[in-house]
């Protein structure tokens, strides 16, 4: 399993542990990932995603999974999230034509 957020693309970073004697050894900075189930209101289904804690706050701020995905660029999204975004756009197209 890749340690990568499915919504923002946030991944593992590398750096150095620096001791008091100033010796440098390599280390990894892991993202704070959570396995969550998010509800899509437009599609009326729930989706399991691996999301960073900061992305989860952004999802809540933008009004849920649907709002986040529609505003997000495709660059950071995982394949699963891109497919979900495509489904959302398809589902919202008939609503826009009906209005």
From TrEMBL:
UniProtKB keywords: Ribonucleoprotein, Ribosomal protein
Similarity field: Belongs to the bacterial ribosomal protein bL28 family.
UniProt gene name: rpmB
Species per Swiss-Prot/TrEMBL record: Methyloligella solikamskensis
Listed InterPro entries: Ribosomal_bL28, Ribosomal_bL28/bL31-like_sf, Ribosomal_bL28_bact-type, Ribosomal_bL28_sf
Gene Ontology terms: cellular component: ribosome
One Pfam family from the record: Ribosomal_L28
Lineage, uppermost ranks: Bacteria, Pseudomonadati, Pseudomonadota, Alphaproteobacteria, Hyphomicrobiales
Protein name: Large ribosomal subunit protein bL28
């Amino acid at each position: 399993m890749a340690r990568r957020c499915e919504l923002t693309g946030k991944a593992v970073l590398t750096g150095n542990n620096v001791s008091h004697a100033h010796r440098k050894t390599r280390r990894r900075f892991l993202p704070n990932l959570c396995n969550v189930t998010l509800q899509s209101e437009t599609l009326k289904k729930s989706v399991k995603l691996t999301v960073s804690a900061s992305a989860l706050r952004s999802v809540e701020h933008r009004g849920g999974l649907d709002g986040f995905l529609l505003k997000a660029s495709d660059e950071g999204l995982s394949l699963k999230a891109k497919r979900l975004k495509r489904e959302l756009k398809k589902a919202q197209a008939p609503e826009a034509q009906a209005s």
